Every structure is written in structure tokens, then in C-alpha cells.
């Protein structure tokens, strides 16, 4: 029999959990040693943990995914000149906000005598610095954790759409795929054998992804994850090679895009830069956490360079025909069809890692309330329901570019741009460490994030409604002609 106190502790609300898991927890569990409150030597590196290079690789992996492939369309929405400049500015702001989060975490963990804190805990203890917010500090922690869950589930929705769009394109062009990678003026993959709707492809992926998330310990997927990373890296190299070798002089491309399209750029860009959720888990697992800031600067410099270069080169190569993912513009030949399949395999495996975070937050409190006999069936049932939920959302919004922009605008803007300046203000306001320029800077970043959230969400939803209406009209018109 389980003691009632144990049940109460395990049944604590999901969003109140002291430790919010990350993808790295799945593949890289905490090093063995004393319990968490006893690790007073963590900050001076007296423990086992990840090295500088290992942490750098994890940081790159946490920031490079489907968002990178959507940046050429983002540059199109912003303009050939304004797009890269905006990506650079957003990259600088995003890295600054990551640095602010780490600084606040260090300060508050020292203040409350904790070796490390999660993002939600940083918000909680930051609010406790303000007397009139102290009683509501748990709400701050809940809010951050809620946005983390929304973001991770949003990534899973994007993966459903990405997989269906790319596999659909490969299947439709299978009969005409050749060894010759010639360029045509429009979308490079010629649709010659139309198949069923992309939403049916999502339903085809559903059973496989459900079985994938049934994996009892994601460390079993570590070899597949490594293979997936290698495949995605090779795919990116081939995408860069094709784009560079087929680039066109951009004299006729607009330097500044339309104002009504810029919010879509913001949503896609902030979706790509939203790696702030992995910052504290990576820093807490380093052998020498005091070396994390150099890792952050090196890693995010590489990420920002990749974002700006692929976004610009991809747009210059495919111009006004660029799709929601640059993979959808690759030519109809075996080499680049293989690129799509390799990247899809990487995204398929990554789905389990992204799903790990919300599953480990939401499921354990429910399992704590059921008997041992029903724990496994309930666990599998909840995982199935969560995957079906993400699939249903993807089916409702089967537009890759819009779902990326919507997820970025709704959740990533808060985690990456709005919360960090608020945290810095809460953490240091009572200690006289906030100079007027710092307060102005925090206010400016917060306003950018809030305006981006409002405009990006509105425009993305408006575009989703418009495209769905157009599709219904086209379908109705086709039936009328018959």
C-alpha cells in the first residue's frame, strides 16, 4: 500500500511541479550523486555532467528544426533587406533574453539557497521579491509552465503538418522522380500523380506516432536520435548546396515586404528562435555551469548565422514560389526526394522528444491518483489522447507556414521576449540594480513581444480563416460543375 502522504505529493498539480522536464532529461538523465538540495558545489563544477562541446551540440539541436526551414518564406514576408536585418535584431534580442534568464536564475538560486531553478521557479521566486505579488507567485510559475506546454504541443502540431506535406509530395512525384535535378520556374517538385488530402496523411502518421510515444524510456531512442541528427545535418548541407548553386540575382525582389505580412515574419522568426526553454536545463546539467555563457554566445551565433543565411539564400533561390518549408521547393530527383525523407525521419524521432516535456508534466499527477493495476493502461491512454489532440489541431490548421507563425506568435513570443524582461525587473528592482536605461530596454523588449503576439496571432488566424474559406469555395464550385 502506498502511504497517503506519498499519494498527495505525487498528485500535486502538474504545473506546480518543482522540476519541469526537458528533452535533454529524456536522453541525458541527471548525473548520479547527492540529492538536489545537497549539491552546493554545482556552481563550481565539482560534479559529473556535460562538457562544453556536448552542451554546445545540445544547444544547437534545441534551436535547429522545422523553424529553420520556414525562414525563407519569412524573409519573403519581410523583404530581402528588412528580413535578414530583422532576423539579426531578433537573434540579438533572443540571446540577450536567454542571458537575462540565466542571470536571474543564478541570483535567485543563491538567494533561496537552491543549486538550480527551472524557468517556472525563476518566475515564482522573482514574484516573491515583490510584496504585493508574493501571494500570487505560484500563478507566475503556472503561467510559465503552461506556455512551455503550449509551445511543446505546438511543435508537435507543426511536425504533423511537416511530415504530411513532405511525404505527400514525395508520394505524388514518385512515378516521375529522376536522377536529373533540373530547375523549373515554380515549385520544384512537379505533382504528377495527385493523391489524397494532406490531412489523411496526418491520420496515417497517427498510429505510428502513438506507438513511438509509448516508448517506456526515451534513452532507448538515443541511438535513433543520434542517427536522426546526422540525417538532418546531411539534409541541411544538401539544401544549402542546392540553394547556393541555383541562386539568382535578386534585382527584382522587393527589399521591404508588405506591412500586413510582417506579423507572419515575426511569428515564424520567433518560432525558430524559441530555444529559451532548453537554456536552464542545459546550464544545470553542465559539468562547469559557469562556462555556459560562452556556450550560449557561440551556439546562438552559429544559429543566427544559419537562420539569416538559409532564409536569405532560400528566398533568392526560389523567390516568390517559396513554400512553407524550403524542402517543398526541392527538385523532383532522387537526391532531393531522399533529403525530404531523411529530414522527415529526423522530425519523426524528434516528435517523441518534444512530446516528452508536456507528457512528463501532465501525466504523473493523474497516475498518482490511480491504483498500480491501472497505472500502465491509464498512462498509455493519456499519451494516446494527447497525440490525437495534437493531430486534431494539425488537421484543423493544415497550413505549414501559418501553423508555424501561429505557434510562434502565441507562445514563443511570451517565453522568448516577454517573460525575461519581466523577470529581470522583478528580480533586481528592490536592490537598486535596475538603472533607467535597463528599465527602458526591458520595456522596449516587452512591447516588441506583446505587439508581435497580438499582430502575429491576429494575422495568422485571419489567414487561416481566409484559406479555409477559399478551399471550401473551390470544393463547392467543383461539385457544382459536376
Could you describe the 3D structure shown?
With 482 residues, this protein is an all-alpha fold. 68% of the residues lie in helices and 0% in strands. The protein is built from 17 helices and no strands. It has helices at residues 4-10, 23-27, 52-63, 66-69, 71-78, 82-111, 119-127, 137-172, 198-213, 222-245, 262-273, 279-284, 292-318, 334-367, 372-396, 400-428, 436-481. The longest helix is centred in the C-terminal third of the chain and has 46 residues, at 436-481. The chain is globular, with a radius of gyration of 23 Å. The termini are far apart.
Secondary structure: elements and pairs:
Blueprint: H1 4-10, H2 23-27, H3 52-63, H4 66-69, H5 71-78, H6 82-111, H7 119-127, H8 137-172, H9 198-213, H10 222-245, H11 262-273, H12 279-284, H13 292-318, H14 334-367, H15 372-396, H16 400-428, H17 436-481
Helix pairs in contact: 3-13, 5-6, 5-11, 5-13, 6-7, 6-11, 6-13, 6-16, 7-8, 7-16, 8-9, 8-14, 8-15, 8-16, 9-15, 10-14, 11-16, 11-17, 14-15, 16-17
Quick synopsis:
By secondary structure, the chain is mostly helical.
Defining traits:
482 residues, mainly alpha, 68% helix
Q: What is the residue-mean pLDDT, rounded to a whole number?
A: 84
List SSEs in N-to-C order.
HHHHHHHHHHHHHHHHH
Shape: globular
Unreliably modeled segments: 1-18, 31-46
Distance between the termini: 67 Å
Largest sheet report? none
Amino acid at each position: 500500500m502506498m502511504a497517503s502522504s506519498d499519494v498527495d505529493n505525487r498528485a500535486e498539480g502538474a504545473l506546480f511541479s518543482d522540476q519541469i522536464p526537458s528533452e535533454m532529461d529524456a536522453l541525458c538523465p541527471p548525473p548520479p550523486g547527492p540529492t538536489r538540495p545537497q549539491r552546493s558545489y554545482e556552481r563550481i563544477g565539482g560534479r559529473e555532467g556535460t562538457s562544453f562541446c556536448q552542451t554546445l551540440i545540445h544547444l544547437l539541436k534545441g534551436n535547429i528544426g522545422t523553424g529553420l526551414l520556414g525562414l525563407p518564406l519569412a524573409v519573403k514576408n519581410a523583404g530581402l533587406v528588412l528580413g535578414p536585418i530583422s532576423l539579426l535584431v531578433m537573434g540579438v534580442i533572443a540571446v540577450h533574453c536567454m542571458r537575462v534568464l540565466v542571470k536571474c536564475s543564478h541570483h535567485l538560486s543563491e538567494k533561496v539557497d537552491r543549486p538550480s531553478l527551472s524557468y517556472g521557479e525563476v518566475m515564482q521566486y522573482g514574484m516573491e521579491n515583490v510584496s504585493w505579488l508574493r501571494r500570487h507567485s505560484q500563478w507566475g510559475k503556472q503561467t510559465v509552465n503552461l506556455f512551455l506546454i503550449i509551445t511543446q504541443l505546438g511543435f508537435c502540431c507543426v511536425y504533423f503538418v511537416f511530415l504530411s506535406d513532405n511525404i505527400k509530395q514525395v508520394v505524388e512525384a514518385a512515378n516521375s522522380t529522376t536522377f536529373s535535378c533540373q530547375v523549373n520556374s515554380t515549385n520544384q517538385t512537379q505533382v504528377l500523380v495527385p493523391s489524397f488530402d494532406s490531412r489523411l496523411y496526418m491520420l496515417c502518421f497517427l498510429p505510428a506516432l502513438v506507438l513511438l510515444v509509448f516508448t517506456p524510456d526515451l534513452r532507448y531512442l538515443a541511438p535513433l536520435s543520434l542517427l536522426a541528427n546526422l540525417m538532418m545535418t546531411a539534409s541541411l548541407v544538401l539544401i544549402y548546396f542546392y540553394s547556393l548553386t541555383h541562386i539568382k540575382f535578386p534585382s527584382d525582389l522587393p527589399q521591404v515586404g508588405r506591412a500586413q505580412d510582417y506579423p507572419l515574419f515575426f511569428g515564424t522568426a520567433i518560432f525558430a528562435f524559441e530555444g529559451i526553454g532548453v537554456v536552464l536545463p542545459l546550464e544545470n546539467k553542465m559539468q562547469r555551469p559557469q562556462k555556459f555563457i560562452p556556450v550560449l554566445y557561440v551556439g546562438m551565433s552559429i544559429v543566427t548565422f544559419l537562420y539569416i543565411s538559409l532564409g536569405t539564400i532560400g528566398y533568392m533561390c526560389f523567390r516568390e514560389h517559396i513554400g512553407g518549408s524550403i524542402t517543398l521547393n526541392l527538385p523532383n530527383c532522387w537526391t532531393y526526394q531522399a533529403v525530404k525523407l531523411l529530414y522527415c525521419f529526423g522530425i519523426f524521432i524528434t516528435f517523441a522528444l518534444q512530446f516528452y516535456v508536456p507528457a512528463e508534466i501532465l501525466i504523473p499527477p493523474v497516475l498518482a491518483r490511480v491504483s498500480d493495476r491501472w497505472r500502465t493502461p491509464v498512462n498509455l491512454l493519456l499519451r494516446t489522447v494527447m497525440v490525437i489532440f495534437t493531430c486534431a489541431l494539425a488537421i484543423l490548421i493544415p497550413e505549414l507556414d501559418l501553423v508555424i507563425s501561429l505557434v510562434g506568435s502565441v507562445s514563443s513570443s511570451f517565453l522568448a521576449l516577454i517573460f525575461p524582461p519581466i523577470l529581470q525587473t522583478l528580480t533586481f528592482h528592490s536592490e537598486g540594480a535596475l538603472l533607467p536605461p535597463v528599465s527602458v530596454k526591458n520595456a522596449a523588449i516587452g512591447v516588441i513581444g506583446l505587439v508581435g503576439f497580438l499582430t502575429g496571432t491576429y494575422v495568422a488566424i485571419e489567414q487561416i480563416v481566409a484559406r479555409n474559406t477559399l478551399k471550401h469555395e473551390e470544393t463547392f464550385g467543383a461539385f457544382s460543375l459536376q
